[in-house]
Every structure is written in C-alpha cells, then in structure tokens.
Amino acid sequence: MRNSHFFRRHGLTVAAATALPLALTAAGPATARGTGISVSTTGSTVSVLTSACTQINGSWGTAALLNSSQASFAQGRQVALSGTGVSQSAAWSNVSPGTYTVIVMCANNTTAGTQSVIVSTPVVPTVRSTPSSSPSRGVMGGLGGAARDYGPVTMGVGAALVGGGVIGAAWFLRRRSRPHRL
User: Fold this and answer.
1) C-alpha dihedral sign at 34, 38, 41, 42
2) How far is the CA of 80 from the CAs of 6, 54, 116, 151, in angstroms?
3) What residues does 63 pair with on adjacent strands?
4) Where does the pLDDT of residue 48 fall: very low under 50, low under 70, confident under 90, or very high at 90 and above?
5) Average pLDDT over residues 128-153
6) 82 and 89 in contact (C-beta within 8 Å)?
7) Is beta strand 61-66 parallel, antiparallel or unpaired with respect to 82-83?
8) Residue 144 DSSP SS3
9) Which pLDDT does position 141 carry in this prediction?
10) Average pLDDT, integer, range 56-68
11) Distance between CA atoms of residues 26 and 34, nearest Å
C-alpha cells in the first residue's frame, strides 16, 4: 500500500526524470538544429556535415568558410561537398585560430545552413624529462615487486618474526578457549 501511494504521488516526477536523459540524447551535441548542418573542429581542421543537399549534374554543392572580415559566400574559402545521398561533408585544414562562419550552398542554389564556429589555439603539451635512475635488474615480480634483494639474513629474521607471531596467536587462542578452573 505504501509503495503504490509513493508511485501514484510521484509518478509524474519519476516519468520526467526518466524521459530527461532520452530527450537530451535526442538533442545531440550543440549543433545548429533546424539549419541542416553540423560543424565541428579538431585542432586546426574545421569540418561540416549535412544531409540537406541533393546531387545535380554530379555536384552536391559548395561550402564556404568565412572569417570575421568577410561578408559574402564568394569571399570565403570554398570547398566542394562530397558524400552520398545520406550525408555530404566538407573540410578545411590549417585554419588559424578565430571565429568563423560556415555556409553550405547546395547544387540547386539553396542554403542548407549557416553556423558559427570558434577555432581555438591548439594546446601543445610540454614534456619535461628529468633524469632518474632505473633499477638495474627491473622489477622482481617473484619477490612481491621489490627492486632490491635484502639477502638471506634479512629474510631469515623476517620469517622468524612472522613464525613467532603465528605461534603466539595460536597459543593465545588456545588458552582463551579453555574454561578457567576455580
């Protein structure tokens, strides 16, 4: 009774919490929804993907990359779209850092979409090597990963301490289990 009351009372909240991840997954990454294009950057390469164009006379269309000082499609770096009937794409390499606008014009002179993209400066990790001494024989896996051989005397003393501890624990437990006589 108590569980059904909980689900009756909070059912809408549970349904919304379940549907939220599905809605976010359907929304996908931050792309220009409704414009028909998806623009991404990887380092100094900008690429565009669309499925809005149809092939006319062997051409899918053209995509242009415009920087902030360029105002029209003709002024940008133009690349012909390539692909299949499912998706078409274009890419520009060696793009310097800055804000750009990508415009895709299909072969039938319709605009598939326009989207802005920011190309950031690639971060080059700096690797600093420091001289360090490495073990001469590597890691000795049979000895618990120790990189140093302690010798037979040290191992014997350690074994004697462990053995003494086991004997002492057995003696203590045996005395404890005997009933005391008055």
Assistant:
1) positive
2) 59, 13, 19, 73
3) 79, 104
4) very high
5) 64
6) yes
7) unpaired
8) coil
9) 58
10) 91
11) 14
Structure tokens at 27: 């929304």
Listed in sequence order, the residues at least 6 apart from 99 whose beta carbon sits closer than 8 Å to its beta carbon are 67, 68, 116, 117, 118, 119
Q: Which amino acid is at 21?
A: P
In angstroms, the Cα distances linking 172 to 67, 143, 175, 176 are 83, 31, 5, 6
DSSP structural state of residue 137: S
> CB atoms < 10 A from the CB of 78, how many?
16
Integer Cα distance of 66 and 101 in angstroms: 5
Nearest to 33 by CA among 23, 42, 46: 23
Tokens read off for 129: 């090597």
Residue in this structure with the two tokens 């001494």, named with its chain if needed = 133
Q: Residues 37, 22: contact at Cβ < 8 Å?
A: no
Query: Is residue 97 helix, strand or coil?
Result: coil
pLDDT at 85: 83
Q: List the one residue out of 100, 57, 107 whose CA is nearest residue 81.
A: 107
Tokens found for residue 88: 């078409």
CA distance 140 to 53: 63
The answer, as to whether pTM is greater than 0.85, is no
